[in-house]
Write a structure and sequence with these properties.
- The chain is built from 4 helices and 8 strands.
- By secondary structure, it is of the alpha/beta class.
- The protein has one domain: Rossmann fold.
- An 8-stranded mixed β-sheet has the order 1-2-8-7-3-6-5-4, with helices on one face.
- Helix 2 links the parallel strand 4 and strand 5.
- The protein is globular, with a radius of gyration of 15 Å.
Length: about 150
Amino acid sequence: MARIIAKDLSFNSDEFSVKVEVRSGITVIGGDSSTFRTYYYSLMLNEAAISNDERFVFMNYLYNDIDRIKNGEIQNKIVFIDNADLIIPKDVRIKDMLAESNNQYIIFGRDVGRYTYSLDDWAKFVSRGNNLVEMSYVIKEAGVLWQ
């Protein structure tokens, strides 16, 4: 079953801060183009490479390892999937595939309903001012929707 490996996936730099706190093993970040998803993906990719952090696996249209996930070869990792709508075939039962692994997933896409069982897992990036960007869930605590 998908699980939380790291709850806090925030990023801080001299220029800005990105606050990301996950609440389940599958977090789907949606939104239109230019909504910070790919930029955050790139920040995390660079940070993992610089720190040689082997907990992370990154996939996008240039590097797609979905078959290794389906075959169970990738386990106990934090898997970032950018442009999921492009790299995951529509006939793949992604919800079942992800739920059956011991990985944590951060999925960036537009068709967010394909990747999760619950609205509780849907999020987007929101600028909070003062150089702070925060991941915000569609459904906040106690079932309250975005304002």
